[in-house]
Amino acid sequence: MKKAFLALALIAVAAIVPADAQRGQPGAAPAPPPNQSVPIVNNVPLIPFEVVPNFFKITPDQNFGEALAVAVNSKGNVVVLNHPGTATSGPLYGNATTQVLEFDSNGKFIREIGKGVYGLGYAHSVRFDKYDNLWVVDKGTNSIMKFNPAGYVTMNLGRRPEGYEGEYHRVVGAQARATDGNFNAPTDVGWDADDNIFISDGYGNSRVAKFNKNGDWIKSWGTFGTEQGQFRVPHNLQVDKQGNVYVADRSNGRIQVFDADGTFKKVIWLNAAYDKTRHPVLGNLSANPPDAPAPWALCITTTGPTQYLYAIDTEPGRLYKMTLDGQILGMLGESGRGPRQFNWPHGIACPSEDVIFIADMNNWRVQKLLLRPGAKPPTGAQ
């Protein structure tokens, strides 16, 4: 499935950019993704886990649509970024769709945040900062909004394209021309200990942007490509307590780590061995599956003495628990439509080492997982 998604992404880019321009070198063919041939790690332990059934107490008229992201604040309240769409009005193509729904720590619905806010159109990520401000990254409007705990917008970064200018055409890949202070389909947000703001930008641009805590532009790094420090769809982002920035470089099939100034530090692969003949949850088997599946979402724990990095892929659909150096400590799950499976998992929240929320996008749900690392996995469990 991941390979099929990558092919679609490359087709979209090729429609705008000639093939020999995608690498920035005249006459050069597009480079293969770097995750096609990496060292394989065998015998990674499986982490026993449970799924909390019916955690979210919603009524039938509150069915989730595509749940793209999930976040948990210091009180245990859970925010779900939901794309409900509409069944009653158009246009079918290009329809705005975003709900930001808050639940208490027991899954009881509290409120919808930001209803009707100008910057909400096709949001991609939600994250809480350490002050319980909620940040919403909107891929469609190119806006990053900060909501205080009361639900008021207190900061906006970027600018939504003006409606009177007619249909908006997004330029992506090698042909995109990034400008300071603006975004092109941004995807995620994170902060360091000094409250500097880092934004992965995104589907259109291929970079990470850095602002200070007041929203003043500092710098950016990254260009379109496959080389070290380049990106193809920087899809998710996290920052550890030392200020290192972890970027899920999705279409390149890797996690890249930088310091707070954008200096490259290392690559992390999701390179645990898997059954490459297993049928994917969407589409058909790839003729050339990668050795390291593509990371779609990241989360770094903030509680406890040790920080852990969690990452998830879409095929074979596994959640990985790692050290910050990238050692895979264990994994769980598989792609599918069952209660212990994932179908295009798009967002992770990790309020503690052993409590994980997964925005299970194409299964139209959010799953709460309880990890039991000391337990014995049930027979046949993934």
> If strands are numbered along the chain, what order do they take across the biggest sheet?
1-26-25-24
How widely separated are the two ends?
A: 19 Å
Choose one word for the global shape.
Answer: globular
* Averaged pLDDT: 90
Count of individual beta strands = 26
Class of secondary structure makeup: mainly beta
Instruction: Based on the coordinates given, report the CATH architecture of the domain at 67-88 and 95-159.
Output: Beta Barrel
CATH class of the domain at 67-88 and 95-159 reads: Mainly Beta
CATH fold descriptor of the domain at 67-88 and 95-159: Thrombin, subunit H
What percentage of amino acids are in beta strands?
Answer: 25-35%
- The Cα radius of gyration reads 20 Å
* Largest sheet features: 4 strands, antiparallel
Number of H- or I-type helical stretches: 1
Q: What fraction, in percent, of the residue positions are helical?
A: under 10%
Order of helices and strands: HEEEEEEEEEEEEEEEEEEEEEEEEEE
Parts with pLDDT < 50 across at least 5 consecutive residues: 1-27
